[in-house]
Design a protein that fits this description.
By secondary structure, the chain is mainly α. The protein has one domain. Helix content is 78%, strand content 0%. It has three helices and no strands. α1 packs antiparallel against α2 and α2 runs antiparallel to α3. The longest helix is centred in the last third of the chain and has 34 residues.
């Protein structure tokens, strides 16, 4: 059970790392929201699932209740993360941010 929990936590950290790199590397506001959403969703799901499994390995009532509380946090994030991403996107559109366009090369039309 501890090994499975560790695998989930490492996978979650992998998604957190990939999402962080995507936020830093993507060129504009709109494309940066995509890795931010994935970072929240998959990174948090995997990491907290691993923590819930690690906590519940004793199979005692307090440990299982703590694991359920951790899973409730995952449900809360899955409900609020898309809403927050949409609100941020809407604020960017209202502020007049446009999508990124690649600079034109010399000699092309």
């Amino acid at each position: 059970m501890t090994l499975v929990a560790a695998i989930f936590i490492v996978l979650g950290l992998f998604f957190f790392t990939g999402g962080s790199i995507g936020i830093l590397r993507f060129p504009d506001f709109f494309s940066r929201l995509h890795p931010a959403g994935k970072l929240d969703s998959m990174g948090l799901l995997m990491t907290l699932a691993g923590m819930a499994l690690y906590t519940a390995r004793d199979l005692s009532l307090p440990a299982i209740l703590t694991a359920l509380k951790i899973l409730l946090i995952v449900v809360f994030v899955f409900i609020t993360s898309p809403t927050a991403t949409h609100a941020i996107l809407d604020a960017g559109v209202r502020a007049g941010l446009g999508p990124w366009t690649a600079p034109k090369k010399k000699g092309t039309r």
